[in-house]
From TrEMBL:
Residues 60-121 form the CASTOR ACT domain. Residues 16-55 form the A9CJY8-like N-terminal domain. InterPro entries: A9CJY8-like_N, ACT-like_dom_sf, CASTOR_ACT_dom, CASTOR_mTORC1, UCP008459. Gene3D superfamilies: VC0802-like (3.30.2130.10). SUPFAM superfamilies: ACT-like (SSF55021). Transmembrane segments: none annotated. This is ACT domain-containing protein.
Length: 127
């Protein structure tokens, strides 16, 4: 059973960056009103506002974020799946970020209108 979700479109255009795992956290990555930093043994991934990243690193620009209205209890099942199923059905690729209280689904800016249509068709509310 799909869960109806409320999603808010964030105004910023975002960029997804990849650095070597051993790189220190760069100052530019911590600017702007939205950023996410994830380090693993294999890489350092940074999502930040477009234009804050240097041009001499590996990055992909042109992303928009949809924030699921939370908070969600950690025991709640299927919250993100209900959104991802709608986007997968519309053949829209995503980049997901989770925080303590909610989830963010990034879609390419060129696919934003199509994503909103798919989500609304699946019964979700997009603001």
């Amino acid at each position: 059973m799909n869960q109806t979700q409320v999603l808010n479109i964030l105004p910023q255009r975002l960029v997804i960056c990849r650095l070597d795992a051993s790189e220190p956290l760069p100052g530019w990555a911590q600017n702007g009103s939205f950023f996410s930093i994830t380090r693993t043994a294999d890489e350092l991934s940074i999502v930040c506002e477009e234009g804050l990243n240097p041009s001499d690193i590996l990055y992909e620009s042109g992303w928009r974020a949809l924030m699921l209205e939370g908070p969600f209890d950690f025991d709640q099942i299927g919250v993100l799946k209900s959104v991802l199923d709608a986007l997968a059905g519309a053949k829209i690729s995503i980049f997901a970020i989770s925080t303590f209280e909610t989830d963010y689904v990034l879609v390419r800016a060129a696919d934003l209108e199509k994503a909103v249509t798919a989500l609304r068709s699946a019964g979700h509310r997009v603001c």
